[in-house]
Amino acid sequence: MKLSDKQQRFITMKFNHTLDVAEGTPRSGKTTACIARYFLFLNISNDVNHLVVGASQQQAFRLVIDCDGNGLLHLFGNKAVIKHDDHGDHLECQTAKGMKKVYYKGGAKADSDKSIRGLSLGSAYFCEIDILHMNMIQECFRRTYAADIRWHIADLNPPAPLHPVISDVFNVQNTNWTHWTVDDNPILSTERKQELHDTLIKNPYLYKRDWLGERTIPQGVIYSMFDEQIHILDKLPFDFVPFEMFFSGDGGLTDATSISCNLIGMVESKYIVIRAANWYYDGSNKAMSTQAKEIVRDFVPYCRHKFKMLESCWKIDPACKALRMELRLLGIETDKADNNGKDVKGNRKGIEVGIEYLQSAISDGRFFVVNDDRFGCDDFLREIGMYCVDDNGRPIDAYNHAMDEARYANNYFYKRYVL
After folding, report:
1. Is residue 184 exposed (0-12), middle (13-18) or buried (19+ Cβ within 10 Å)?
2. Is the pLDDT of residue 159 over 80?
3. Which end of the chain has fewer CB within 10 Å, C or N?
4. Separation of alpha carbons 284 and 304, rounded Å
């Protein structure tokens, strides 16, 4: 196996961080280095059980266990065999510290973490950690609490700048981060690298992501016209006098709940809507009744007091019956939000029409967001930077809870004051 100097240094670093992250361009040699480093760790760890997590079990096997002949199965050679026990499929291998079991599992689904509950781990390898579900990632860290040497490793291509894996994992753990580009892969010739460069430079997004290895807003992002320098405000404009305040919401028993406080007013004879505050929860520890109590007890009084107004209405996702019922029990009467179910505009219909309305509001300077001190816009910004369309131009059902709720709010504003 041919290794670059950088790969050799990475493989042999001390295991003195909780998490090693290899982030960079495709074909940069980071996966090869991560697997070799993991092989070395398995030979010094005293723990028996270890884990490789991919988006699916097949991906975990293909990327790390096999890896086109460079995976753990081949590095251990005749000292490794694929087996199965009560905890699942695994690679059983003889190491310098005795027999080890390296389980490989899928981790992209919300309930993936159930597959490792009760399993004590010595380490975890996260394949393309940015596409794994956060429930699985966090459960892996919990499963290693009692490890002899508590260590994890992750590889990934550059994610969006506001991807939650950065804030909720990399910035939380004791992380050692290493950046990789195609120059770090010794098997790529100078001619091949020049060929890749000449192709990628034609597309700014691909050049930044796949050549420079920079974190970049994904191609196909739906609200690409949203500019953080223009559309995010520290406070309400001095010449903005709101004449209406209303709440908009979306949520579900397994989805994130997002409630926004929105102000409608005029600036320079133009109607605008300002997303002034946002209550957001994405977790599994709060029942809908508990969430509703926090919204009514904390968020609503805060908004009413800060803006010295009472809301005109509540627009809640029609499908979110549980939230509507819990709010009603607490004295809040809600309306069904306009979810664009009946909208048709040219060859567009449904949600596509609502998205176009919000795109227009952003482009025309009618939609703004306030980064409130207590109920800020971080969750909204994370979603708006990652809410994309698929290859067929259809919105992907991910990172869209605040996005759906913002669309409902804009539908109310746009159809009453703009159209």
Report:
1. buried
2. yes
3. C
4. 28
What is the C-alpha separation between 253 and 273, in angstroms, rounded?
Answer: 29
Six-digit token string for 17: 């961080």
Report the pLDDT value the prediction gives residue 196, as an integer from 0 to 100: 94
Question: How many other C-beta atoms are found inside a 10 Å radius of the C-beta of residue 237?
Answer: 14
- Count of beta carbons in the 10 Å neighbourhood of residue 348: 14
pLDDT at 293 over 80: yes
The pTM assigned to this predicted structure is 0.70
Cβ atoms of residues 389 and 395 within 8 Å: yes
- Tokens of residue 316, six digits: 């809640």
Q: Cβ atoms within 10 A of the Cβ of 299, count?
A: 20
Q: Taking CA 177 as the corner, what is the angle to CA 175 and CA 179, rounded to the nearest 5 degrees?
A: 170
pLDDT tops 80 at residue 1: no
Phi-psi region of 111 (alpha: psi -120 to 50; beta: other; left: phi over 0): alpha
Q: How far apart are CA 353 and CA 344, in angstroms?
A: 7
Give residue 42's pLDDT: 98
Please report, as a single letter, which amino acid is at residue 308: K
Residue 51 C-alpha from the chain's centroid: 22
